[in-house]
Write a structure and sequence with these properties.
Length: 186
């Protein structure tokens, strides 16, 4: 009986992860089609797929979030990316992810979901610029950071607001978040 329950629970978790990965890939592909309106920041994106990462951080274990991020990056690269876009995405996604997880550890009394998301937006740009610096073999690429940081703060803040809205108005997400927080305290 207990083994059957564990198997069902594992299946539900895997389906949930798969749905989040699929949503992240679709959002990532759709975002590539959106022309960015700011000529002063060529190559900048809004990072809409990071909404999925934020949802995952608040509803899944660390290991599952890492798995989700890897799968999303690999599938997005296979469905229209290049090796260089994969490298930039990898650098940005994982630095962003680890930064958001660290900031989340400060607790909800010190930092909000919006603050966590804004941190992710800025650190995603830092990660991409670090990769660009390694590829170009020069640190002058980092001079682009102030412009990208402003965009990252704005986009990350907007994604944090969207995540707050989802957790407030999508019943299953608020349920999963509650259960995740409860299991972490036990």
């Amino acid at each position: 009986m207990n083994n059957s329950y564990e198997q069902t629970n594992k299946t539900h978790r895997n389906i949930y992860i798969s749905l989040l990965v699929a949503q992240g890939v679709i959002i990532g592909i759709l975002e590539r089609m959106i022309p960015f309106p700011f000529a002063f920041a060529p190559g900048a994106k809004l990072g809409l797929a990071n909404l999925i990462t934020i949802v995952a951080i608040f509803t899944l274990s660390f290991r599952d979030v890492i798995t989700l991020t890897w799968l999303r990056l690999i599938l997005t690269a296979l469905l229209g990316g290049t090796l260089s876009t994969f490298l930039y995405s990898f650098g940005g996604a994982f630095l962003s992810l680890f930064s958001m997880i660290l900031v989340k550890q400060l607790g909800p009394k010190r930092v909000s979901l919006i603050g966590i998301s804004a941190t992710g937006g800025v650190m995603h740009n830092v990660g991409q610029l670090l990769v660009a610096s390694l590829i170009a073999q020069t640190w002058t690429v980092m001079l682009y950071l102030p412009v990208l940081s402003i965009i990252g703060l704005a986009a990350g803040g907007a994604l944090g607001i969207a995540a707050n809205y989802l957790f407030t108005h999508v019943t299953i997400l608020s349920y999963l978040r509650f259960n995740h927080e409860k299991s972490r305290k036990e």
